[in-house]
Amino acid sequence: MPQPYKFDLKIYLYAEKGQLLVEILGKIFEAFTSVPNTKCVLTVIETVEDGRPYLLRNLPVLHLHTRKGDLFYSGDLSNVEKIGRLLQLVEATMTNRKQGSHQDQAQSER
């Protein structure tokens, strides 16, 4: 039985004003659901230092590894709650498509 392909998605959340682009998450969702035999790992990282946003240089806000290459999105993602709900939807969809797969849960460090 072949190993499932692993999507490794890392979202970096910044507490700065910015706009969540629904088209980007739509393309991610499409990539997740269109490839058979996949495993999805979602990591949400809130970069905050001393109550202020901690910006990481030379690091994309969003980095998605796919079979067709890497997808980068360098915009700001400001609405943590909305992003969390959308990611839960994606994760739930992947869990339903690939039953019995082990899901890693990322814990946010405070």
Summarize the SSE layout with pairings.
Elements: E1 5-13, H1 22-34, E2 38-46, E3 48-49, E4 52-53, E5 62-66, E6 69-73, H2 80-97
Parallel strand pairs: 1-2
Antiparallel strand pairs: 1-5, 3-4, 5-6
Average pLDDT works out at 48
Could you give the count of β-strands? 6
Structure annotation, total helices = 2
Q: State the helical fraction.
A: 25-40%
What is the rounded distance between the termini?
40 Å
Walk me through what this model shows.
With 110 residues, the chain is an alpha+beta fold. The chain has one domain. Helix content is 28%, strand content 29%. The protein has 2 helices and 6 strands; from the N terminus they run βαβββββα. Strands 2-1-5-6 form a 4-stranded mixed β-sheet, covered by helices on one side. Strands 3-4 form a two-stranded antiparallel sheet. Strand 5 and strand 6 form a beta hairpin. The radius of gyration is 14 Å and the shape is globular. The C terminus is likely disordered.
Short description:
The chain is α+β, with helices and mostly antiparallel strands and about 110 residues long. Helix content is about 30%, strand content about 30%. The chain has a 4-stranded mixed sheet with strand order 2-1-5-6, covered by helices on one side. It has a two-stranded antiparallel sheet with strand order 3-4.
Task: Give short descriptive properties of this protein.
two-stranded antiparallel ribbon; 110 residues; 6 strands; single chain; 28% helix; alpha+beta; four-stranded mixed sheet; globular; disordered C terminus
